[in-house]
Specification:
The complex is a heterodimer of chains A (about 110) and B (about 300). By secondary structure, chain A is α+β, with helices and mostly antiparallel strands. Chain A is built from two helices and six strands. In chain A, the strands form two sheets. A three-stranded mixed sheet of chain A has the order 2-1-6. In chain A, strands 4-3-5 form a three-stranded antiparallel sheet, with no helix packed on it. The radius of gyration of chain A is 18 Å and the shape is elongated. Chain B is an alpha/beta fold and about 300 residues long. Helix content of chain B is about 25%, strand content about 20%. Chain B is built from nine helices and twelve strands. In chain B, the strands form two sheets. In chain B, strands 1-8-7-9-6-10-11-12 form an eight-stranded mixed sheet, sandwiched between helices. In chain B, strands 2-3 form a two-stranded antiparallel ribbon. In chain B, strand 2 and strand 3 form a beta hairpin. In chain B, about 40% of the residues are buried. The chains are: A alpha+beta (about 110), B alpha/beta (about 300). Strand 2 of chain A pairs antiparallel with strand 4 (about 80) of chain B, so a sheet runs across the interface.
Amino acid sequence: MHELAITQNIVEIATQHANGARVRRLTLEIGQLTAVMADSVRFCFDVCAQGTPLEGASLEIIEPPGIGQCRLCSNQLELDQPFGICDCGSMQIDIVQGEELTIKEMETEALCV
Amino acid sequence: MCITCGCSDDAQPTYTRPDSQNGHVHPHRHPHSHSHTHVLADGTTITHDHPTHPNHSHSHPSADPAGLVVPVPPNYPVTPASTSPIQSPSPAATHAHAHGTTLTLEQNLLAKNDSIAGQNRSWLGERGITALNLVSSPGAGKTTLLVKTIEDLKGAIPITVIEGDQETAHDAERIAATGCSAIQVNTGTGCHLEAAMVKRGLDILNPPNHSLVMIENVGNLVCPALFDLGEKAKVAILSVTEGEDKPIKYPHMFRASRVMVLTKIDLLPYINFDVQRCLDYARQVNPNLTLFQVSATTGEGLQDWYDWLRSL
């Protein structure tokens, strides 16, 4: 659903930063607690990259797993959903990892003089 | 295809104003030969026509380079994928490989939408206007609750409405029938409202100062959770006919919301719905949720909802 729009956004942002150079590799970070499916982004990427400097680029997606921190006891716990219950019984969990949604870096072909 | 919103030629958002003299702002789709206006994701309005070239293209200005910087945690998998088979084997490409440059970007994928949402929030704040983003699955009763709310609070709080649906202006017409000013945004194939659509909607709607703007999002419990529109709060609406486990089935939406309104409670005697279990699930996903239980048909529970709206 929204992954197509987001992938198009990714290609647009990378194209702007590539400044005319071909992109060889693009690295994204999509946390496991976001509502964005990495597999869907992969599926959309080749289509969206066609005719852009990203065509043929390899796509790496880092998928940080969810980690929450209890507000009451500061204990950290693994999360596979964007909510959870701490061992102390608290449901006041702040998500400290797993909501990342960024383009981390990309590798372009340098224009050789 | 528009690279920001993902809409195709057939999916440009359209804006319809049922209470205006001519009845619409952009009533028909592109195969027409006419000039028209639409809004880019950064809020820029572009007017152009398509006499003979329906497959137009346009570019979007650069996104806000300020990204969300996230520390890199170690120890989790990096999955390489989708290397295209059409890698160029030419000597030039091989040579260029030796000169690869790595750029660190750390840019938030939603930075552009968030930036426009921030502009909307400032625009609303300067005018003392409060906006609420109403989200639910299709058929939960958003429009019915809105119509009832507008009728009951008429005179107490000035309310205007931005209606989001994929197609038709039915909902805006229902709102307009109450005498309330409303605009319909049709997203075409789009599954959610984005900040740029709301910005354009606000420009057309021109809500009065110190009023309440209700933004009724496209019926969808997934995508709208991701897109900030500039609202003060998201209000998730859940009807008792949907099943009590919706909050844990769609946790992103209920976590992103500040309020949950359980609607259609007049139907509880006829269905198998455990209210307490539903509220427990909702609090499990989001312990800070403010919860209301209402029936727009009988009026039960509406007073609490109205009191909350007055307190905004």
